[in-house]
Amino acid sequence: MFLGVTASVTNWDADGTCCSIVLEDNPLVDFVELPDTCQGLYYCNILSGVIRGALEMVSMKTEVTWIRDMLRGDDAYELQVKLVKQIPEEYPYKDDE
Questions:
Q1: Topology of the domain covering 7-27+37-86
Q2: What is the C-alpha to C-alpha distance for residues 18 and 56, in angstroms, rounded to an integer?
Q3: pTM for the complete prediction?
Q4: Which residues contact 85 (CB under 8 A, 6 or more apart)?
Q5: Which of 59, 73, 66 is nearest to 20 (CA)?
Q6: Residues 20, 11: contact at Cβ < 8 Å?
Q7: Distant-in-sequence, close-in-space partners of 17: CB < 8 Å, separation ≥ 6
Q8: Structural domain boundaries of the chain?
Q9: What's the average model confidence in pLDDT over 7-34?
Q10: How many CB atoms lie under 10 A from the CB of residue 70?
Q11: What is the gyration radius of the CA atoms in the chain, in angstroms?
Q12: Is the pLDDT of residue 90 over 80?
């Protein structure tokens, strides 16, 4: 939403704990070309950290990895989000006092 990008969520697994987020456009790479010596670099890895951090704020421990990247010659940007565990919420105070 903040980047002005439309994403679609696809490829849910049977357990409902793993899915893919496909980005049709990515404004972070508008003027970027990776040289041949940096083909192992995931330039937009900041997006996976943002998604992981946002889900941790709502008590979900996840793994976010890049599946496809247009900078590497793929046809789209695709992130895989896998739920590792649901973190129980802890409150720093007691309600009965």
A1: Muramoyl-pentapeptide Carboxypeptidase; domain 2 (3.30.1380)
A2: 16
A3: 0.78
A4: 61
A5: 66
A6: yes
A7: 82, 83
A8: 7-27+37-86
A9: 85
A10: 16
A11: 17
A12: no
Query: In which band, very low, low, confident or very high, does the pLDDT at 1 lie, cut at 50, 70 and 90?
Result: low
**Mean pLDDT on 18-30:** 84
Find how far residue 15's CA is from the centre of its chain.
Answer: 19
Residue 3's φ and ψ, nearest 5 degrees, are -90, -10
Which tens digits make up the pLDDT trace of 40-88?
A: 777 778 888 889 999 999 999 999 998 988 877 778 889 999 999 998 8
Tokens of 41: 């670099």
Cα distance between residue 68 and residue 49, in whole Å? 16
- For the beta sheet containing 60-68, the strands, ordered from the edge strand earlier in sequence to the opposite edge, are 7-10, 18-23, 77-86, 60-68
Kindly state the tokens that stand for 82: 């896998």
